[in-house]
């Protein structure tokens, strides 16, 4: 007989329901990482140079909104808790705005740029409204650090599952639904993913609970909370790690289609791929490797502390990605193998870092006697989107600086730029993430002590660790 679920051992349906929220998030997040630059430049015809200004401006505005949303969520009072209501009411705007980004109306060149600015801004604001509370939910789903690590591993299996769906089915669906019209294909495909994301967020709302509340005597003070945040050393270390993490992910994912279209050549893919082109199989196998790595997290975490485990895994990803600069592009099996090694290491690292943020929320409550879960997670999303902003800027810069011109045979210089972005550039930012994790000060022994003392303050029973 299985033990009854408790705040320290959640029911399986809650783990699965929580995971679906990140599947919904990644139906668009991974689309932005993998396809957005390609869609804007190669499909819809926006000049790459225009993105050099648009991406930083829109993403900077979006990043600034995250802490504001975190402060709002921390002050929310409802019968559903602080964070869950936003999953209910934010799902429809999220799905609709995501679809509108890829609606592809027939506009003038200037009109397309304006439309891209408006719809991208609205989508990222909708993403903030729903994803800051969703991420913060991990910090209150259980008072147990180990239980939150399990929930985080489920979450990232869901996240990479969403990425796998995007990797495997976007290009085939675009071809199937749009035929020779890629713009129409993207329009129909993203309408499907928008509807799926709405349903998934509603399931997450229905299956999860909030179990950790702020101290009863806690007083809200925005300036005080912000001061405590910048004095929270573990959070500052994770801030740097998250910026570097999403920078290398955005740079790597965004350059993948360019790498295969112009450096490898999908037309030269092995015949056994069938209807899937080389880039689709490459992306899908990478997502599958991330899922496999995340599923192995429990085995790893029982033997190795979160901090050194995250450092070594991130270093493995950095080495694997940088190695692509030296790999022959005509050996598809070798490309798949090295990528699988890098993504296998990356999967558990993402889950570990987001579980660390929950530990940081505990640490903040322990040190300052004030719990600001929403602010901590929203500030982490600020870092995440800052990294996306940097990665989103760096890729168009590589394309523009090295003389990329869409849909022609590229010059050796342009090919070099694509290769650098895909390999050494991505690997370098992954290495910087590993260095940031080195300075993260909390180990499991300290986390257990903080958790134990917080339980004593709250009058909660101790649990075995």
What brief labels describe this structure?
465 residues; mainly alpha; Growth Hormone, Chain: A; 15 helices; 0% strand; disordered N terminus; transmembrane
Description:
The protein has about 475 residues and is mostly helical. It has one domain (about 10-210, about 220-460): Growth Hormone, Chain: A. The chain has helices spanning about 10-45, 50-75, 85-100, 110-135, 145-180, 180-205, 220-230, 235-265, 280-295, 295-300, 305-320, 330-370, 375-400, 410-440, 445-460. Helix 13 runs antiparallel to helix 14. The longest helix is centred in the last third of the chain and has 37 residues, at about 330-370. The radius of gyration is 22 Å and the shape is globular.
In short:
The protein has 465 residues and is an all-alpha fold. Helices cover 76% and strands 0% of the residues.
What's the SSE blueprint?
Layout (H helix, E strand, L loop, with lengths): L11 H32 L4 H27 L9 H18 L7 H29 L7 H34 L3 H26 L14 H9 L2 H32 L13 H18 L1 H5 L4 H17 L9 H37 L4 H29 L10 H27 L5 H15 L7
GO molecular function: symporter activity
Subcellular location: Cell membrane
Membrane topology: Multi-pass membrane protein
């Amino acid at each position: 007989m299985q033990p009854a679920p408790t705040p320290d051992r959640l029911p399986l349906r809650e783990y699965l329901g929580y995971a679906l929220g990140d599947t919904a998030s990644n139906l668009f997040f991974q689309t932005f990482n993998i396809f957005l630059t390609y869609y804007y430049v190669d499909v819809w015809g926006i000049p790459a140079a225009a993105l050099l200004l648009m991406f930083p401006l829109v993403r900077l505005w979006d990043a600034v909104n995250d802490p504001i949303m975190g402060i709002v969520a921390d002050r929310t009072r409802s019968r559903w808790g602080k964070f869950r209501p936003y999953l209910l009411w934010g799902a429809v705007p999220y799905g609709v705005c995501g679809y509108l980004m890829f609606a592809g109306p027939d506009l003038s060149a200037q009109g397309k740029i304006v439309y891209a600015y408006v719809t991208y801004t609205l989508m990222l604001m909708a993403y903030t409204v729903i994803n800051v509370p969703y991420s913060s939910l991990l910090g209150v789903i259980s008072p147990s650090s180990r239980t939150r690590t399990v929930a985080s591993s489920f979450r990232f299996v869901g996240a990479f599952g969403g990425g796998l769906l995007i990797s495997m089915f976007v290009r085939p669906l675009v071809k199937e639904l749009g035929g020779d019209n890629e713009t129409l294909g993207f329009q129909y495909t993203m309408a499907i993913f928008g509807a799926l994301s709405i349903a998934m967020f509603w399931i997450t709302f229905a299956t999860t609970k909030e179990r950790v509340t702020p101290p009863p005597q806690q007083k809200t003070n925005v300036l005080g909370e912000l001061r405590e945040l910048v004095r929270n050393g573990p959070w500052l270390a994770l801030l740097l790690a998250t910026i570097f993490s999403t920078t290398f992910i955005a740079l790597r994912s965004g350059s993948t289609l360019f790498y295969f279209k112009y450096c490898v050549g999908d037309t030269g893919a092995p015949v056994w791929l069938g209807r899937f082109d080389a880039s689709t199989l490459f992306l899908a196998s990478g997502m599958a490797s991330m899922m496999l790595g995340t599923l192995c997290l429990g085995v790893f975490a029982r033997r190795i502390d979160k901090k050194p485990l995250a450092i070594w895994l991130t270093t493995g990803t950095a080495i694997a990605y940088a190695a692509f600069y030296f790999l022959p592009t005509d050996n598809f099996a070798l490309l798949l193998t090295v990528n699988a090694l890098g993504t296998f290491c990356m999967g558990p690292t993402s889950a570990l870092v987001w579980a660390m943020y929950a530990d940081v929320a505990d640490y903040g409550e322990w040190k300052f006697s004030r719990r600001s879960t929403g602010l901590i997670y929203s500030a982490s999303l600020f870092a995440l989107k800052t990294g996306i902003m940097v990665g989103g800027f760096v890729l168009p810069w590589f394309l523009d600086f090295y003389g990329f011109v869409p849909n022609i045979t590229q010059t050796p210089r342009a090919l070099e730029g694509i290769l650098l972005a895909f390999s050494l550039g991505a690997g370098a930012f992954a290495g910087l993430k590993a260095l940031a994790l080195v300075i993260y000060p909390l180990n499991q022994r300290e986390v257990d002590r903080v958790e134990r003392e917080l339980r004593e303050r709250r009058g909660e029973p101790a649990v075995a660790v």
